[in-house]
From TrEMBL:
<dbReference type="Pfam" id="PF08583">
    <property type="entry name" value="Cmc1"/>
</dbReference>
<comment type="similarity">
    <text>Belongs to the CMC family.</text>
</comment>
<keyword id="KW-0496">Mitochondrion</keyword>
<dbReference type="InterPro" id="IPR013892">
    <property type="entry name" value="Cyt_c_biogenesis_Cmc1-like"/>
</dbReference>
<keyword id="KW-1015">Disulfide bond</keyword>
<feature type="region of interest" description="Disordered">
    <location>
        <begin position="1"/>
        <end position="32"/>
    </location>
</feature>
<dbReference type="GO" id="GO:0005739">
    <property type="term" value="C:mitochondrion"/>
</dbReference>
<protein>
    <recommendedName>
        <fullName>COX assembly mitochondrial protein</fullName>
    </recommendedName>
</protein>
């Protein structure tokens, strides 16, 4: 009778095995599927930060300098610079190669976290 209960409890997981398995109980490191929150929140956040640092660094820097120089008049005086920055960022977000690159980087980071149990921020601090 105990073996029957054990088999039933093994089959009834709250989380899927991909979310709760793995060497540290953080999920399967080789799982490449994305949850809704990852698709809609985490990957776009990664895309935004990478686009600001890599693809549109000059536009972001120009806008920051304009905002710093104009203070309260920034919305009026920096309108054209802001528009060019927005266009650059929108082009980066629409680029399928860039989206794929960010998605793969996110999945690689998640896989590494699931494999080691160490978050990316902690790894950077250690090195």
């Amino acid at each position: 009778m105990d073996s029957t209960l054990k088999n039933e409890s093994e089959e009834n997981y709250v989380l899927s095995k991909t979310l709760g398995g793995g060497p540290h109980g953080l999920g399967d490191p080789d799982d490449r599927t994305l949850r809704k929150a990852e698709k809609e929140i985490l990957i776009p956040q990664k895309m935004k930060s990478k686009a600001k640092k890599e693809k549109c660094a000059e536009e972001v820097q120009n806008f920051g300098q304009c905002a710093k120089n104009n203070g309260l008049l920034m919305p009026f005086k920096c309108r054209d610079i802001a528009k060019s920055m927005e266009q650059c960022l929108a082009a980066a977000y629409a680029d399928p190669v860039f989206v794929e690159k960010c998605t793969n980087e996110y999945l690689d980071e998640r896989s590494d976290y699931r494999r080691t149990g160490i978050k990316i921020k902690n790894k950077k601090a250690e090195t």
